[in-house]
Structures are given as C-alpha cells and as structure tokens.
Amino acid sequence: MTDTSPAIDGWFTTGPxxxxxxxxxxxxxxxxFPPTAGFCRNPACxxxxxxxxxxxRRGRVWSYTDAQYQPPPPYIPRSDPYEPxxxxxxxxxxxxxxLGQVAxxxxxxxxxxxxxxxxxxxxxxxxxxxxxxxxxxxPVENPVVEPVETEEADQ
Amino acid sequence: MTDxxxxxxxxxxxxxxxxxxxxxxxxxxxxALADAGVxxxxxxxxxxxxxxxxxxxxxxxxxxxxxxxxxxGARVATSYAACATGxxxxxxxxxxxxxxxxxxxxxxxxxxxxxGFLAPNAGERWDDPDWLRFRLLGMTNPAYFALYARRRMxxxxxxxxxxxxxxxxxxxxxLHNPNxxxxxxxxxxxxxASAVVADPLHLLxxxxxxxxxxxxxxxxxxxxxxxxxxxxxxxxAISTVTPTFPNAVLDMPNxxxxxxxxxxxxxxxxVETRTFKESIGHxxxxxxxxxxxxxxxxxxxxxxxxxxxxxxxxxxxxxxxxAEALLRAGDTTIGGRIPVNPxxxxxxxxEAVPAQALAxxxxxxxxxxxxxxxxxxxxxxxxxxxxxxxxxHGSSVILSR
Lengths: 155, 401
Ligand SMILES: [Zn+2]
Known about the structure:
By secondary structure, chain A is mainly β. Chain A has strands at 3-6, 21-25, 31-32, 50-54, 58-67, 85-91, 97-102, 116-127, 130-139. In chain A, the strands form two sheets. A five-stranded mixed beta barrel of chain A has the order 5-6-7-9-8. In chain A, strand 8 (116-127) and strand 9 (130-139) form a beta hairpin. Chain B is 37% helix and 18% strand. Chain B has helices at residues 21-36, 55-59, 61-69, 85-98, 129-137, 141-156, 160-173, 188-193, 221-226, 276-288, 305-314, 323-329, 345-349, 353-369; strands spanning 4-15, 45-49, 75-79, 104-111, 196-198, 201-202, 211-219, 233-239, 297-300, 382-389, 393-400. In chain B, the strands form two sheets. Chain B has a nine-stranded mixed β-sheet with strand order 3-2-4-7-1-8-11-10-9, sandwiched between helices. Chain B has a two-stranded antiparallel ribbon with strand order 5-6. Chain B is globular. The mean pLDDT of chain B is 94. The chains are: A mainly beta, B alpha/beta. The interface between A and B is large, with 47 and 51 residues. Zinc ion (ZN) is lined by residues 25, 27-28, 30, 40, 42, 45, 47 of chain A.
C-alpha cells in the first residue's frame, strides 16, 4: 500500500492549483514563509497570532543555479545514477523570496533573472510509504500579461 | 577615542594538517606574543574563537588555549559568530580594554576541519533550516554562492571569465604568502576547465575548508606607549551588526527572506535602505569616522570568486555593478588603485572558520606595517575587512597606521 504525500506537512497545498502556505501575522499583516508560530519577526510588532494564508502561485526569478553534483544527506536522491536539477529563488508579490527546485524538464538555460515562474508540485523522492512531493518552480511558457503590468522581465 | 593597539599578530599556516586545533592555536598565540614582545604572564585576558567541530574543548576555546599556554590567571571568554567569530572575539577584547578592565588581551582562533564534504549533523531536524535546505531542496553552500554569481551575470553583464580572473589575481597575490595553503599560479583556462559545481561556478571558483590558526595581541594605547610601541597599527572600528527587518536578501542557510515592506500602514518597521552586507561595512566606516575613499586595501570573504565582487560594492569601493570594471582594469590587483585580498584571500587559504576573520586582521596589520613581503601594498595606511556568516552574523574591521 503506497500513497503520495508532501515531503513536509503544512508548507504547501496540493491539487490543480497548488500554493505555498505562509503565516500572516494578525496584528501587523506581515506574511512569513515557511509557516511560523509563536512570535512575529517584525520588530515593531508584538503579535503572536498567525493565520495560514496561501501565497501567490506566480513570481519572478530572483536568481537561479543547479546542483551538478549529488548533494550530501539528508538530501535523498531520486535516481541512481544521480541526475542534476536546477534551483531558483523566486520573488513573490508578497515581497518574499522563496527557494525551490525547478520543475522536471527545465534547467538553467530556461531561466533568467526576472522571468515569470509558476508553482507546481512534483515528486521529490520515493520511500517505502510512497512518493514524497515538494513545491517546484516552473517557467511560464506564455506569460499572461496582466492589464496593469507594463514592465517586461529584464532578460 | 575608541582606538586600541595591535601589539602583535601571528598565524599557523593554513593546510590540511589533520592535527588538533589546540596545537595550531598555541602556535599562532606564541607567534603573536613574540611579535608583540609581550610575555604570556602579562596577558590579562584571553578570548578564544569557538570551533563547533572539535568537541567540548572547542566550545570553551578561550579556556582551552589558556590552559594549553599554562594557566596564568587571566580572565577568559569564548565567542561564536560563525564566520565572524574572530571579529566578535576581537570586539570582546577591545570592549574590556576600552573599559579599562584589561590592558593586554590575547585573541585566538583555530580550527581542524574534517576530511571530505561539509554536511549537516546527523539526525532528523525538521525545525532546522540548515537541515531542511538539504532535505527538501538539495541546496548546498555553493548553490547559494551561485545564486549571487548568476545575479551579477544577468544584472551587470559579469561573465564566468570575470570570476576566473578573480581567482587568477588572488592566486598570484598569495604566491609568496608563507601562511597560504595554495601557492600556485592559476590560469583562467584552468578555472573555466574545472568542473561546474553549481552553474555558473566552477570548482576553482569555490574556496576549500582548511586547518589553520590566527592570533592577535590587543592592548590599550597607553600600554603600547609604555612598552615602546611608538606607532602601532590601531583598530579603528569593529562592526558586528545584525540585519534589520525586513532582511530581503536571501542568506544561507535560509529557504526564504523576510517579507519586504509588507507591514500594514501604521505599522512602522525600520526603513532600511542598505542590505545587510552593506550595513556591516557602513557601521565600520561610521565608527572609524572615515569613508570608502579613505581605504587603501581590503581583505574580503571570497567564499566564491564572484562574492569578492559583491563585497567590493557592499563596502562602497565602487558603485553597484562596477566591480567587474575595476577588476578588468587591474585596480584590485596589488599595485592597482584599491588592492583586494592581497593575502591571496580564501582562494589561497581555504576557510578555517574561527580563525578566518582574525587572519584578515593579521594580513592588514602586516600590510600597514610594510611587512607583507612579496605582496606589499605600497604606502598602505588604512585597511578594511569584511565577512558574513550564517544566521545574521557578519563583521568588518578597520585598521589604520
Ligand atoms: Zn506582526
């Protein structure tokens, strides 16, 4: 009996429109990712309550790279022999830059600072219990330009 | 007046010697004491830079070095601030001297690094970002360095050849440095032909980890005067500031940044126009009462070649995006306008964490005294160091003659 489940609980939703789950301070509205609890990191705020909130599914690449050598444990390789994968730091409209692996089939040649990407959920590794999933950034093939957006990505 | 005197400096050569860190520390301490002409019994404060890789003796490094040198009744302290450990230890010593509580302080940092790849400690730690970045993302240290390097390429037109040129320059600078681990010319083609670790960085763009030790004897100006140190190199500033919220630049080992400017109107969060790394240098300049234009040379933390270029801009040695132009013009080479890493930098040393910020101070001291044989920056009067470590640590030290 195997199943598919997130590699870490509560950090992202799954389904057709997956999203990262952040913590929004109910006092000052600062939003944090990964999810946080206990105290707000805004030094001007003593808030202690947070509401789970889905972050924007699209953002722009802040920078990117790849892992051409297999990272050491606790990284769990997905294949043997090892296959390199790309990584991207993505700036969300919320003002947070979030790291993530890049979606299967895409490498650094598909990326540029400022390029629009979208969040997807894919398999990180498999264990006895089944597939463990993670959020990933996927380049947007035909960016939907919002009417208010006039700035093109700096390629 | 908040200056203190550097009476002596000393190091144990960097390498992969595989011996106990205490041995290196004692070697460096004795070299610094001899350089200062200070007898060990006269030292009234020992500050050790903690090493987290060498068991309990490393956690209480100050006492470990004091005992190894022979208990002399001195006060003791141990500092840990990741890569800024040595600077924080120096700051601790300076504070007691300026308070009039100590006259002569010995500051020591030493490390023995394990063989092979640096990985997080064993065990499952789901609340530790340093563990999670490996487990969830496979995000290694070089991958962070590569993110910064790639931004320079996409935003400012830097090329892998520029990064290689930093390595070529630093390898040449370190050729005659007796404390450097790597003393060999490197050609740009060697760098570009070495394996890509994390695009765009090659193996030779990334610094190694090393064994090594550095020590500084710090005294009050009065003590220096009374002991015939007529014109000692002075510590003008030690900055160990933390970031301000929101820290909007991605820092190792974090998976994300603070939210830039997301607080609701009416909730004032401090408006910080400088990045964390910029603020480290800025605080040092303010404390010394000087500006980047007064600096003759810099020792910066080149964990990767591209990071040296970032630091030049963070320290205000040039405008954002102009570091490559200075590099290409030879301005950062010894003999140029503002030599960077005349010691050879981490490129020639490799990183020995608790010793590294002190090693930067040793190099500046030799340079300002005119004793940097084979790598002297002629007429140097003012030098600055910079580094950044994990979890909000960083430092910048300004010395002058
Ligand atoms: Zn808050």
